[in-house]
């Protein structure tokens, strides 16, 4: 996929309440449809994404935030011609422990 995820705050930093991940997604990149048992929100800093989740599809642009409830199937794709950058907040923490592609600064 070519996505680059960097953990900015782990559950160790927040007493398990949440983690914060800096996501860099190349054009056409993004995760395939998936679900997990924690809530997730994405704040788009740069670029545009097309997200699919229960209730339909949405286009997101820089400055917008999308919220995904726990156990809701979802995916998104970078729809722009530049690397999209998102901040992903997961609550409670744990995502940063289970994904081998996450890096720590």
What is the structure about, briefly put?
The protein is mainly β and 105 residues long.
Output the keywords:
six-stranded mixed sheet; globular; three-stranded antiparallel sheet; mainly beta; 105 residues
Strand order of the largest sheet: 6-3-8-2-1-9
What is the rounded distance between the termini?
A: 21 Å
Strand portion: over 45%
| Total beta-strand segments | 9
Order of helices and strands: EEEEEEEEHE
Helix content: under 10%
Q: What is the overall shape?
A: globular
Number of helices: 1
Low-confidence stretches: none
What's the average pLDDT?
A: 88
Largest sheet: 6 strands, mixed
* C-alpha Rg (nearest Å): 13 Å
Notes on the structure:
- It is a single chain.
- With 105 residues, the chain is mostly beta strands.
- It is 4% helix and 49% strand.
- The protein is built from 1 helix and 9 strands, in the order E-E-E-E-E-E-E-E-H-E.
- The chain has one helix at 95-98, and strands at 4-9, 19-25, 39-46, 48-53, 56-61, 65-68, 75-78, 84-91, 102-103.
- Strands 6-3-8-2-1-9 form a 6-stranded mixed sheet. Strands 5-4-7 form a 3-stranded antiparallel sheet, with no helix packed on it.
- It is globular.
- The model has no long low-confidence stretch (mean pLDDT 88).
Helices and strands in order:
Layout: E1 4-9, E2 19-25, E3 39-46, E4 48-53, E5 56-61, E6 65-68, E7 75-78, E8 84-91, H1 95-98, E9 102-103
Parallel strand pairs: 1-9
Antiparallel strand pairs: 1-2, 2-8, 3-6, 3-8, 4-5, 4-7
